[in-house]
Amino acid sequence: MEKSDLMYEVIHGKPNTGPQFDRWFRNRRFDLSIYGVHGDATPPGHSLRVLWFRLDHRERLKSVSLFWDGQNLRAYLVDEGDADVRKNNSPLMIASLTPDLQKIIDEFKIVSADIPDSLRDFVVEHLTQSPLSTTAGLNREPD
User: Fold this and answer.
1) Per residue in 47-92, pLDDT tens?
2) What is the pLDDT of residues 16-36, one digit of tens each?
3) What is the total count of domains within the chain?
4) Contact status, residue 119 vs residue 42, Cβ threshold 8 Å
5) Assigned domain for 117 exists
6) For the CA atoms of the chain, what is the radius of gyration?
7) Does residue 108 belong to any structural domain of this protein?
8) Which residue range is the domain that position 109 belongs to?
9) In what order do the strands lie in the sheet with 63-68?
10) Is residue 61 part of a domain?
11) Are 110 and 6 in contact (CB under 8 A)?
12) Residue 142, in any domain of the structure
């Protein structure tokens, strides 16, 4: 993988004019927006708190938006609309999608190497523990 494939933090030009602690990371296939980031899990004795995050994953013919609201993960298929940008309307988000979450998690782990460990681990943990994930509950030790 080339360095250009890794996600990077967008500092200027954020689409959200919200609080200063919002973080936005992206590459050509992913957008990760994290809201309500407080603290840092890296130094001992500190904890990380996140209000919610959204991870968008683009593929050739479809896009998936994963939204964690602080308690539950929801998945949406994103219909980008007409291919002609002169006619393209706002995208439609269709709920109740069951994405190939493990594929998205595996790819995200690779391309997010430059994201702070505490944020990347937080996102991966909440994606993996979701009922949408086929591996939910499989990472624990046997009884």
Assistant:
1) 677 889 999 998 877 789 999 998 999 998 887 666 666 666 666 7
2) 554 445 788 999 999 999 887
3) 1
4) no
5) yes
6) 16
7) yes
8) 3-128
9) 8-9, 23-26, 30-35, 52-58, 63-68, 73-79, 92-94
10) yes
11) no
12) no
